[in-house]
Automatic annotation (TrEMBL):
InterPro entries: Formyl_transferase-like_C_sf, MPG, MPG_sf. GO terms for biological process: base-excision repair. This is Putative 3-methyladenine DNA glycosylase. It holds the Pfam family Pur_DNA_glyco. Its EC number is 3.2.2.-. NCBIfam families: 3mg. Belongs to the DNA glycosylase MPG family. Keywords: DNA damage, DNA repair, Hydrolase. GO terms for molecular function: alkylbase DNA N-glycosylase activity; DNA binding.
Amino acid sequence: MSVERMPAHFYAQSTIDLAKALIGNYLVHFLNGELLVGRITETEAYLGVLDRACHSYGRKQTKRTRILYEDPGHVYTYTMHTHCLLNVVAERSGQPEAVLIRGIEPVCGIEKMESLRGKSAQDKQFANGPGKLTQAMGISMNAYGESFIDGPLYIGYNGQKNGVPVATKRIGIENTGQAKYFPFRFIENK
């Protein structure tokens, strides 16, 4: 499978636009010399200091959120309920925003993904959640701070036209006031 790496300027667009643009493109991971590829089917945008659902809300800066303040195109991983979650740092340096990759469809390296997940890729629930997809792709907290631009983990495209993403409200963020109603979750329109 031929998947071209996205250029640096791809990540510098607005967080909402990046969340939409990721849909239909590919998450690629070289894991111990093996190529794992998943087509991105679901994302969520987190809009930084004014978004109560974002880890950098109120300009919060911690060891965990440090990478959000860096240049776009960095990997932001964090652990939630024992699962590693994968985000793409967006916008520009100093504007701490990111896009959570919530779901993929396995494309290449499926046997290895099945081994990592302990499940069949035929299961519709195989990689339809942020913790499931990182497990299937072998992505760990060690990816924190790496670059999607030149690292072993990247976003790619293969020249095919992507579908139009559908906006819905984000999920799993119940204690964030009005932010839980923002239509910043994007899913593939099939």
